[in-house]
Amino acid sequence: MEVLLKMVDSMVETGRFDLHVHTFFSRDSLLDPRLLPKVAASRGLAGLAVTDHNFFGAHRMLESSSLIVVPGMEIRTSAGDIIVLFIQEPVLSRDPLEVYELVKKQDGILIAAHPFGFPRLSSMIEEFTRLLDGVEVVNSRNLFRRQNQKALELARRLGKAETGGSDAHTLYEVGKAYTLAAASSLEELRAAIRSRMTKGSGGLSIPLVHLASFSASIVHKLARRPPFF
After folding, report:
1. Residue 141's CB: how many other CB atoms inside 10 A?
2. Spatial contact of 143 and 172, defined as CB atoms under 8 Å apart
3. Rounded CA gap, 203 and 209, in Å?
């Protein structure tokens, strides 16, 4: 394992991919996906993953950009939140084993999202993470650095790919955390994650971003549709 980690350090280039971004199709975000290409470029990102809560399709609003855009979702299951990437159609189940099967049928990738953040079911984290492809070891919405450190320890103990994502619900957050990978296409990025040749990096957002999500959820309830769309 020590040798593998040294190989990752030496081979990973500075391609930055924020693999956890929410748009206004998530009920706690007002982020307009049409603004993402310009913001991502200003933050030095080569690509990002659109991972709305239980919604699939916002990535299509970015397809004309030069970004590497990963289609995905974030799904809340009884084993915790899971980021699913490289899928072609929505995954509607909340059962963790069924989610696993549906994603694998699409040749997708499953990542344990903020496994020591909130909410979580700690008694199931390690058992279920053994099935997954990777662990989000840096999540900018965690309140404490120790939560990310525990996720990193879990990933290395289980020999899983290490990823990072901002968990952005506002434009301010985009790129706060990211995945480093030597990839210039979707397929290269998928291969890098599968071969565990990635690193999570970045830092924490200010806690006030959670207030922004609370405000966004109220706007959604009042509008009963995605705002600005």
Report:
1. 24
2. no
3. 14
> Residue 99 CB: number of other CB atoms within 10 A?
21
According to DSSP, the β-strands at 177-181 and 161-165 are unpaired
pLDDT in tens, 51-90: 999 999 999 999 888 999 999 999 999 888 999 999 999 9
- Cis peptide before 207, with omega less than 30 degrees from 0? no
Task: Calculate the alpha carbon distances from 211 to 98, 143, 173, 207, 225 in Å.
Answer: 33, 13, 13, 8, 20
Coil vs helix vs strand at 192: helix
Q: What is the DSSP letter of 206?
A: P
The SS3 assignment for 141 reads coil
| CATH 3.20.20.140 is the classification of domain 2-223 | yes
Contact 178, 166 (CB under 8 A): yes
Q: How many CB atoms lie within 10 A of CB 35?
A: 14
* 217 in Cβ contact with 27 (< 8 Å): yes
- d(CA 189, CA 23) in angstroms, rounded, equals 22
